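By way of example, what follows is a protein record of this kind.
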Amino acid sequence: MTPREPPPYGALPYVFILLILNAGLSASRRPEPYYGRVIGRLTQYAHGIRGTVYAVDESTVFVRGFAYDGTGPDAYFWVGDTPQPSPEGTLVPYPEDYASRDPPVLSAHTNSDILLRLPAGKRLRDIKWISVWCRRFTVNFGDVFIPPGLDPPRPRVLPEFKRLAHGLRSGNISVLDAKTFYIPNLHYDGAGPDAYFWVGNGSEPSPFGTKVPNEMGSLNPLRGYQGEDIEIVLPGKLTAYDVDWLAVWCVEYRHNFGHVYIPKDLDVPPALGQTKITTSSTTSQTPFSAANNCKEILDKRLQIRWEIQGDHVQITLAARLRKEQYMAFGVSGAEGRPAMLGADVVVAFWDSRFNQPRVSDYTISHLAQCDGERGVCPDTRLGGSNDAVVVSGHQKSGVTTITYRRPLAATESVKDKEILTSRSQSVIAAFGPLNSRYEANAHSFMDTTRNDVQLDFGAQSDNSCIGLAELEEGGPAPWAARVLAGVTALTARIGPAGGRRGYTPVTGHPSWGIAWYINDLLIPEIYVERGKTYTFLVEGGDDRTNPAKFHPFYISDSSEGGFGQKKEEEQRKQRVFAGVAYDNEGYPYPTAVGRYCEWTHKTVDQSATSDTFEQYMQTLQLECNEGEPAVLNWTVAHETPDLLYYQCYTHNNLGWKIHVVDPGTLVPLPDKSAIINSAKRLTSLASLVILTLALTALHR
């Protein structure tokens, strides 16, 4: 009797397979809940001391289930390096944030979780014990000893973001604890239409991931960054042990702009609240993308948009302001009515001296101009702090829009009021002139709230704005369409899509942030004659391992493009006229594959503030990889249709129109000034030939 073959994997009982998978999964993850490295249990000597102590990191300990009856007259947490707990120790304040001059005496606890930070730069290796100690009677109520050779969890330093697209780069990224990532010197041009911090599993970033809020706690698409140091926190119960990578990912177009891998042998501190989130944010150059909450007050002259972001609220004010005029908004001094006296407001205005937005936190202690002691005063003039921080601002079509952030909590009990998120509260607003100190001056009766206005800051979609379109007047005007005619030598490079002024308003198609630049013009309409030969020097990238920088050029009758990503039946619906060949087995491949050249942002995307394409080009710089351009020669056949498109072989929606005409047909002439301006940027011999041909065509 022959022995039976073992069953194939697919024939194993389903429950057994689950056990195998779960065993592998649990081996790669931390057990939950995870509090750090166990130090030991507190030994009780008096007053019902109880609790288990963990090393969170080198300078932080966590006491789980702490108990103490609270009757000791002068008891504190106490650490030291003597053989036994003694008066020669150091006090560890709890709670850490206390308002009094001296640390508070330890109160009663029954089953508390307590986080302790070692004081004065001490680390666990510097101490031998932790005690609950009564200073007055020099009595040890309970203690635990640090095990010799204890190795507490530490933050883990990772490589920088892989640089794939949109100028993404950073310094070495650190995993500070199980939920917090520190990203130093972050650069990103902000031009991705639907980009987020993104985490997930697998060997490469994929659509099957999870959005991570930005450093402000917001899930709005990412803005541009210019060398900022930020920290981001994984959402919900997700930890760094659950993911394989962190990326900047465009959800709409499923593109990876760059990523970093999370190692399997991670051993970082648990996330117990010990990591303080800090950022080095700079003022964003892009207007704040408004939340769904919007309200119009002051006879619909002031528009307020708001969004809760962690323990802050982000507020956008928009109004038609005169020069040296302010808009003010804040919490009323009395609930149920508009009271200026006792109110906590933020005054926002455009500082014409420096051409930038300003915001200032104000206290109204008296209905008079500030004299340095009372009145309508900036908190800073009264010895307080300015809790309002500018996020962004712009002026457009007569409308001043300023976005700022302020804490929800009242950081100064006398000068500030709390922003409530559980119910509506009374708010006030006003317009008025600035005085010579650029502080708020008295306003007229008609320019302030005269009735009670209630605002629910915790709302999710409270939008009653109907004048939004009138205020914003439909967004920035698109740039004029460009034309190339009478030119037979052309360059094809990659560049930014130009936001709401460029690719999308011209073509009507969505964009994932980049497009073709032909002769350094953003998606011009090209005119070609039947029977002539045209030469394209293509610099769309030749690295097939980086899809974000691999853009072979081809010519087709498809207004969408992306031939290489289409299924065979979809490919048959396109007619290809240049840039694609077939191998011996009948499979298509691109032929116009050259080095990568891209017009990149010098800082962040400035399309919204550039009235002309020429102005926009001044904010860009050309970056080229080593190598040679691909040469694509195309002779236009006599039977070629009247309308074709230049496109990207691997992606949709990067190109635009080619008009095919018979010899002698009158065609639109390109703008002469545009050609001359672009000449300042032309350096290669091929570009000089293009310029000569274009100017010759103008003078025919």
In short: The CA atoms of residues 270 and 525 lie 57 Å apart. The two ends are 96 Å apart (CA to CA).
